[in-house]
Predict the 3D structure of the following.
Amino acid sequence: MDESRKRTNPSSTPAAIVSVLTSDDLLGEILLRLAFPTHLIHAAAVCRRWLRVASDRALLARFRARHPPPLLGFYSVSNYIPKFWRAPGRHPPEIASAIRRAASLLDESGGGLVTDVVDSRGGHLLVNFGGRDAYDEAMVVSPLLLPTSSS
Amino acid sequence: MAAPESGDGNNGAARMVTLISSDNTRFEVEAAAASLSQTLQLTILDGGGGGGDGIPLPNVDSATLSKVLEYCIKHAPAAANGGAPNATAVDRAELERFDNEFVNIDQSVLYSLIMAAHNLEIEGLQSLVAKKVADMIKGKSPMEIRRTLGFPDPTPEEQAEMNAHMLEYGWAYE
């Protein structure tokens, strides 16, 4: 497994890379400067330690303050027909994919069974499931965290 | 600078201090520039580093120190203006140009610089190099980030964890 170490590291500073990666403070400062939450998620997958640093509550609070979450859109319901209104304008790909996700809850791929969006908090939605004639069932869903299905 | 002489000790504006790198090279630099380092600031305020004494920096080699001081000398005037609230747009643009150029360097130099900025606690430089690394990894997949930063290849276990994480946050990879 050590064979990969032969790559790229100039012999003068083999220790430096390790040093950079072993200080949590330093890593946190780097992660804070990523531009989008998606970048932070990619970084979190790099290894266990990065996941721990990227999941730190204080760091996430700072990240949020630095990069306020954009409005992706909003849900409205009339006559049992819920609709997602995308935030207008052009969005960078990182945001556009989140918007697609939020909208997909209400398409066929999302089941098409949501009859009411009651409330939302922190990316979670309280919805009613069931057809017009069926008995509705309240449920909490997180559109951004739904497993990728057909789309 | 023509700032009013206050607070800066009693040795006048151009007081010099000597810094000694890990490989024993001596660097003479204005106290105001070296004081951008929080680590050195107290020593310098106490009158250290003057005369023949010099402040030893056992963690910083001469190539890195010379690069660090290039930054400090460039940024000292603005820092002396209290973060330069009254700096002109031209001054700020010039500093920004300098900063961009400054981190346009080899990875090995960058990593030494990161460590030095961290050890010497030079806030502006820490922020500049952290931004540079962030720019290097943004928009990359976890695997690409590992390659970019010279991680060893992931173990099968690490690979499995990475895949699981990517599955869980599928939307972030669309």
